[in-house]
Each structure stands twice: as C-alpha cells, then as structure tokens.
Amino acid sequence: MQGTRRAVLDAIAEGPISGPALARELDVSRAAVWKHVEALREAGFEIGSETSGYTLESVPEYGGPAIEFGLDAPFEIEFHQSLPSTNARARDLAADGESDVVVLADAQTGGRGRLDREWTSPSGGVWLSVLSRPGLPPAHAPLYTLAAAVATTRAVRAAGVDAGIKWPNDVLVHDPEAGSRERKIAGILTEMRGEADRIAWLIVGIGCNANVDPEALPAGATSLREGVGDVSRRELVQRLLREFEALRANPDSILPAWREHALTLGRRVRVETARGESVGRALDITFPGGLVLETADGRVTVSAGDCEHLRPVSR
User: Which domains does the chain have, with CATH numbers?
Assistant: First the structure.
C-alpha cells in the first residue's frame, strides 16, 4: 500500500478525523485526502463520513490492502485473484530487484509442490510466496524452509486445528477416523538464487488449504474448512507472516521451534534421497535442517529427501 494512503487509513482507524485535519497532519491537499479515501473505499474498506469526520467501519475480508492493514511485519503485499504460480511471479519481482514482497493469490492455476508435484490451489485457500534477500550463505537456506513450516503450523494451530510438521516442511493433521494416518493441510516450496558466498534472493512458497471443500482436494489432504469451518484468511495470513518475520529475525530460535512442532522425531521413517533410501528412527534435526536417523547401519544425517512416516515395527 502506498505510504500516504497507509497513513490516511491509519489515521481514520484511530478517528474520527476530518478531511482538513488529515490534510494538515499529513501535509497534503484536501483533494489528495479525498482521492486516497476513495481509493480505500474501492479496495473494500467501508469508510463513513460524518460531521465529526471520517471513520473506519469495516475492513475487507481479503486482499493486499486488507492484509497490510494492521500487519506487524515489514512486507508489501501484491494480491492477485488468480495466478499460474505465486513463486513464478515472485521470481519476476526478484529479477526486478524487489525484496520483502509477498505475492498472494486467491487461486493458482499452475501451482507446483516439492519434486515438481502438482499442487491443487482452488479459490479459498492461502497461496503465497515470500521474496526476501537474507544475506546468508546459500548452505543456510534450509533454515528459511523450516521457519516457514513453523510459521504455517502456528497459524493453523491458532485457527483451531492441531497440526504438526513432517520433515522438512509438510504441515499435517492427525485424522482420528483413519487410525494413525495424517493428512496434509499445508506445504512449502523454497527456491533461491545463490552467489559465491551469499543468497542473492530466496522465495518461500506456502500453500495452505484454508476455506476449501475436501472434495476439491487430492487424496490424503484436508483443509481448515473440514476441521473447524471457514476461518478469516486475513487473520491467518497476518499471523503466518508475523511468525515468519519473528523467526527470520532470530535464526537461533528456528530449530528449537521446529522440534517443538515436529511429528517426525521419534518416528520410524523412510527417506528417499538422490543417493538412495534410508530407513530408521528419526532422532533429531541438525543445523541447517538435516534429519538424523538411527538406521540398521548406524546414524546417518540426510540433508534433503522425500520423507515417509512408517508404522512402528510390530513385536
């Protein structure tokens, strides 16, 4: 949201405040104030105009300006009704030199997950990509993936669904009707461009099945709508971005936070990697995100792979 327009909205939210008072406070013309007020109304903000001045009556349910309003995190929101891919749009913005931009879409038509799997992204979900330039060595990029998983899990839990993380970044919900099975509610896809000693840009794509009918999702997936009914996507995204910002500002907090919400640790797992398969009990996670396994051949650490939770060995 443009700076003066944000200041107008903030002042009206604390109002009532008159047009002349706004013009004096912001050192702009009364005509400029009126134009900003009309633009905010067009964006969905209901602004009353009484004898005492302008008042904010309601905030739009979703969209860029709605999420920026009251967002305690330094992100600009670029909202689209539909995009092929928020990650692809974020890559374009990265090429233009942008940073700390969140690309948000109501629906994606070509969303992809890890290992180039198709990701269903209908209207009603939360589909976003966070573009940043963290100034870290490329080897530290997995920290941002873990931070996104924690932030998403905390936002989902705050919405009322008891979620946890499967290594490294799938957010799952226990399905009480299916024994020990867990269903996926959110996933993360991280992309980056690195230079010799630092990350040039990094994009964390997050997809969360929020207000989506279960029938619109692939097998093995669930949604917030199925668990607790429809939620405020505005509040969900704001919570997610606040949590992500707090974690990236304090990298030492990321691994402990991930362990707190981990479903994988202590479980018997199979991890498919480029070098083959590792099966064993997941013991811990190490910096910057490797999974430590106790296998039949001893302890190994896998830095990347496709993880499957296995049933306990019967005795």
Answer: 3-58 (1.10.10.10), 64-261 (3.30.930.10), 268-309 (2.30.30.100)
